[in-house]
Specification:
Layout lengths: L3 E6 L2 H17 L13 E10 L2 H13 L5 E10 L4 E8 L1 H14 L3 E2 L12 E5 L4 H11 L8 E3 L2 E6 L2 E7 L4 E4 H4 L2 H15 L12 H9 L3
Helix pairs in contact: 2-3
Length: 226
């Protein structure tokens, strides 16, 4: 049965910074995970899971996303899952992102075969650097990243992605308040529009209205929480 996954994918400068770290760790520690496939730095929010009702999944994905206010998170530090030999970026979500993840899980739970961690209110947000490591490689990667400096920044959740079989099925854009199919989700032009909306806010150049209130007002309130 086809597997689905819901995740946040890093964009822009942050994506390139984290990808460089993943490549560096993979090369220096001679893991070989990135030779066949370009890494996509991301944060898993639900899954992988299976379902027989894709139409309902897409509808619920849109409904939960469309009601969500802007969300953000920070990178805390490098960390590990000792029981499974995984090295990752530890993520500190704001309360809105934490609630969003839980609301999404509750919404799709009745008809999706979720993993045990998706049924739990407490969730460990993270972005994987290296996984499926032997014990010796795991120790080598741990030692290597302990000497590396992690970039510190506050990241806004620009989009959330619904994957089917590892490919983009739908992607919700919180700047444009729209859901895109795979073609538009991969469009650099569409992404540039979203980034421009965000940058307009950050530069205080103009405000863009949504049905409820200005997106920029929401961001302003979000940053007041810092």
């Amino acid at each position: 049965m086809t597997s689905y996954l819901i995740e946040f994918r890093f964009q822009g400068k942050t994506k390139h910074q984290l990808r460089e770290i993943i490549w560096d760790v993979d090369t220096r520690c001679r893991i070989g995970n990135t030779k066949q496939k370009r890494p996509v730095p991301h944060i898993s929010l639900a899954g992988p899971f299976t379902t027989n009702d894709e139409r309902q999944l897409i509808q619920d994905f849109y409904n939960v996303c469309s009601k969500q206010d802007p969300m953000s998170f920070t990178l805390k530090h490098f960390s590990t899952f000792e029981h499974s030999n995984v090295v990752y970026f530890d993520i500190n979500p704001d309360h809105k992102l934490d609630e969003f993840r839980w609301n999404l899980s509750k919404k799709i739970k009745p008809y999706c075969n979720l993993k045990p961690h998706d049924h739990q209110r407490t969730f460990h947000f993270h972005s994987t650097i290296a996984m499926k490591l032997t014990q010796s490689k795991f120790q080598q990667v741990k030692n290597y990243v302990s000497r590396k400096e992690l970039p510190h920044f506050r990241n806004i959740v620009l989009r959330v992605t619904l994957l089917k079989g590892g490919l983009i099925l739908k992607e919700y854009d919180f700047m444009q308040r729209k859901m895109f199919d795979r073609k538009l989700a991969k469009s650099k032009y569409v992404l540039r529009n979203s980034m421009n909306i965000l940058m307009d806010y950050l530069n205080n150049k103009k405000s863009v209205k949504t049905k409820k209130e200005s997106i920029f007002t929401k961001f302003k309130n979000l940053f007041k929480q810092r």
